[in-house]
Amino acid sequence: MKYEIIKDTDRKGFFIRVxxxxxxKHFAIHRTFLKRDKNGITQRHNIxxxxxxxxxxxxxxxxxxxxxxxVDNNDNVPISPRDITHKLQEKEINFTSTGHKLDHHxxxxxxxxxxxxxxxxxxxxxxxxxxxxxxxxCSTINRNKKDSISLDEAKDFVKKxxxxxxxxxxxxxxxxxxxxxxxxxxxxxxxxLILSGGGQPNLWPHFSEFVEWLSKLDIDLGLITNGFPAKVxxxxxxxxxxxxxxxxxxxxxxxxxxxxxxxxRIPENILDSDVTFGLSYVYGAWTSEEFLKRLRDTSLKWDVxxxxxxxxxxxxxxxxxxxHKELSKKLRNLNFIDQDGKNIDxxxxxxxxxxxxxxxxxxxxxxxxxxxxxxxxxxxTGHETNKKSYCYPCDSVTVLEEENSNSDAERKFNPSKxxxxxxxxxxxxxxxxxxxxxxxxxxxxxxxxxxxxxxxxDLINYNYDKNKIKLDNNVEHINFP
Length: 481
Ligand code: SF4
Prior knowledge:
Blueprint: E1 3-10, E2 13-20, E3 27-30, E4 32-36, E5 42-46, H1 49-66, E6 69-71, H2 90-95, H3 106-115, E7 122-125, H4 151-172, H5 174-184, E8 192-195, H6 207-214, E9 220-225, E10 242-247, H7 268-272, E11 276-283, H8 289-302, E12 306-311, H9 317-333, E13 347-349, H10 357-363, E14 375-378, H11 383-386, E15 391-392, H12 415-418, H13 428-431, H14 440-443, H15 450-461
Parallel strand pairs: 4-6, 7-8, 7-14, 8-9, 9-10, 10-11, 11-12, 12-13
Antiparallel strand pairs: 1-2, 2-3, 4-5, 14-15
Helix pairs in contact: 3-5, 3-15, 4-5
Iron/sulfur cluster is lined by residues 369, 371, 393-394, 396-397, 418, 440, 444, 447, 449.
């Protein structure tokens, strides 16, 4: 095991601490766990001296995520996605990546079909690996705090995807570029950029200067953060098209006053502007009823555009589906969704879950990830040592927990398994033909984006000469497909 597991007591009570034995030694404190009986009923309990050995045995057997779900031996109730009450609706389509928005970018898939060349229209940058929270479900607990990039490196990366890629498409792929211009008013190039790094991209020293520079370009900007540090001037947030605030488990955040998320400072200009402001919450053993009610009241007070609920992606498929089922029931009881799983008001349940090996074998018959053809995720892991770091087709490679294996999800970016090109050569993703860097059948059977992969596959196989793609003009945030 790559983790140190200890039990102890502090002024808040008894806890189990999971500490990564990687260089930076990040850790998470667990004070609660879930217990499921033979009828499949799950209840939340405090960790105590009395039950701690049972939980530690469970962690040793099932890893640092599923280990905190103690299950009665007779619980073998099977589950399928169909058992979860959920209805896909516009909020989930607009504010997450379900694949629906890809239709709006069809000329790039028509180009790929005819020529074999990809087009990178969406990117995410982590910038650094700094975060002040210690979430129990952290997807990068094995990260190194010093893997940070410079402002020039960040700008060079964007310049290539924006200016150079546009020139390249104008010169070599006129036909597809002209079709793209008819829809988007621009050449094929970077259209949407998300800053998401290490929990708090706004703690990166060059954050404001970079955003200011980006705002002079015609790129839609998104921000994912755990909070709004006082040293960053509020006015910079007006430059974003959307901002998603992750609400962490309250005992994991050092900056929630009185350990209450609703007491944190939200810049007034975010609450009062056109920026789409949403909240995101991961459901798990740390979730109490009182918290969920407070989350509802706060989201109304702040008048946010949406509140997204999802489950811990570090869980394997079966446990994740069981968790989704519990979450769906809780949301129903709180009147966040109706009996058919439809959203009520601004709340929605994102039903995102791991795929299976059988699905992987059918989907990736050619052994290449389809997200790689339009999306890039540049993570800074390894930057301190190598002075460059890798791009990945998606961010979910850190949480690929293989079903029925005893190994945990990696909880870090592993370039030897999923890396494509380094940041200084990002242009290779569109100046060279779409190629295989790894086989998703071997490395990604638990992929969380199988539907998106399938959508791209369908768009590549589409008969563009015969049928026009119909665009749904009600879809928002189309540059974040
Ligand atoms: S997890 Fe899925 S989307 Fe991500 S790299 Fe693997 S195949 Fe691609």
